[in-house]
Amino acid sequence: MSDNHVVVITTTDSEDAAGTLARAVVEARLAACVQVSGPIRSVYRWEGAVQDDREWQLWIKTAYDRVDELTEFVKARHAYDVPEVLALPVLGGNTDYLAWITEQTRA
């Protein structure tokens, strides 16, 4: 059952933006739960220069079959030109929790 679930990670430039996106994703049933942490420090290369910024990270728990729609949802509502959207496989866990994720990502 766990191979049907993923954690999707993205970041935003503010706590307010993270909260807004987290709520929208859950309300749209694209995720069962989103945890927001931050600020975190992100160092990355963008447009030829090394950037060093504060960001807020979202850990989005969802079913694997929702990843494509979730990705498009995040891209359409994100302030970044190229938002991070990484889907990490869930290799195991509490089967009751995993069933809850599936249930919450259905209409």
Short description:
By secondary structure, this protein is α+β, with helices and mostly antiparallel strands. Helix content is 32%, strand content 38%.
What brief labels describe this structure?
107 residues, alpha+beta, elongated, 4-stranded antiparallel β-sheet
Walk me through this protein's architecture.
This protein has 107 residues and is α+β, with helices and mostly antiparallel strands. The mean pLDDT is 96. 32% of the residues lie in helices and 38% in strands. The chain is elongated and about 45 Å long. The chain has three helices and four strands. A four-stranded antiparallel sheet has the order 2-3-1-4. The protein has helices at 15-27, 67-77, 95-104, and strands spanning 5-12, 33-46, 49-63, 86-89.
**Residue ranges: pLDDT <50 for 5 or more in a row?**
none
In terms of DSSP E residues, the strand content is 35-45%
Helix percent band: 25-40%
The N- to C-terminal Cα distance equals 20 Å
Q: Radius of gyration in whole Å, from Cα?
A: 14 Å
User: What is the number of helical segments per DSSP (H or I, 4+ residues)?
Assistant: 3
Order of SSEs: EHEEHEH
Structural class: alpha+beta
Shape: elongated
Tally of DSSP β-strands = 4
Sheet with most strands: 4 strands, antiparallel
Mean pLDDT: 96
What's the arrangement of strands in the largest beta sheet?
A: 2-3-1-4
